[in-house]
């Protein structure tokens, strides 16, 4: 399954009060996360992907992604096996002059009711 969505990050948004968007998914294993920065933000827009309090991308808790005209492709193995199956994307842009849209694409392998160890 592929989830595709954009997060609009308003200019002047602080890291302490980031804009966020919840993404409802299904039980499964996330295998890839893509984050596309269009031309224009000039590294003034920062984003991260979380599951509850666990930061998935980038993996380091104090890290964030901030690029210009680049798509980051991260191959991961992250299990969403217990409800809620919700990820949160967060963004901030304290020094940006304009609002920016950052595109996210998340690939997930579904798991049915069988023991997931046999599905992998």
Can you give a write-up of this model?
By secondary structure, this protein is an all-beta fold. It has a single domain, classed as Jelly Rolls (Sandwich). Helices cover 0% and strands 52% of the residues. It contains no helices and 8 strands. It has strands at 2-9, 19-24, 28-37, 46-51, 54-57, 70-80, 86-92, 100-110. Strands 1-8-3-6 form a 4-stranded antiparallel β-sheet, with no helix packed on it. A 4-stranded antiparallel β-sheet has the order 2-7-4-5, with no helix packed on it. The chain is globular, with a radius of gyration of 15 Å.
Quick structural gist:
By secondary structure, this protein is mainly β.
Overall spatial form = globular
How many DSSP E strands? 8
How many domains would you count in the coordinates?
Answer: 1
Q: CATH class, anyone?
A: Mainly Beta
Structural descriptors:
4-stranded antiparallel β-sheet; 0% helix; 120 residues; Jelly Rolls
How does the SSE layout of this entry go?
Elements: E1 2-9, E2 19-24, E3 28-37, E4 46-51, E5 54-57, E6 70-80, E7 86-92, E8 100-110
Antiparallel strand pairs: 1-8, 2-7, 3-6, 3-8, 4-5, 4-7
